[in-house]
Amino acid sequence: MRTIQHIMLATDGAEAADRALDVAAPIIKAIGGELSILTVGEQPSGDELRRLVRSEGDIGDALESLSNRILKQANDRARRLGAPRMSTAFLRARSLVISLSKRRQN
Length: 106
Hints:
The protein is of the alpha/beta class. The chain contains 4 helices and 3 strands; from the N terminus they run E-H-E-H-H-E-H.
């Protein structure tokens, strides 16, 4: 019988994603596995984008900054919940679509 050794969790920083993390982290802690936390950068709302661009100066940098904040909050929460091993990843939505379409062609 195979046991779970790795859980991948996608987050957008929303409360529902936090609840999923609240379930995943204790499981990972109990089994000594690894938790990967992923966020996909999409186009934020107009107000949020303007605020981010003012603070970052570039749309790409703004999206990366927002994603990094989301990942840091999720990482900190998972650590508080006792997850022993974690990794985080940020993907831009356009890169993900291109990557998935290339994979389907192969």
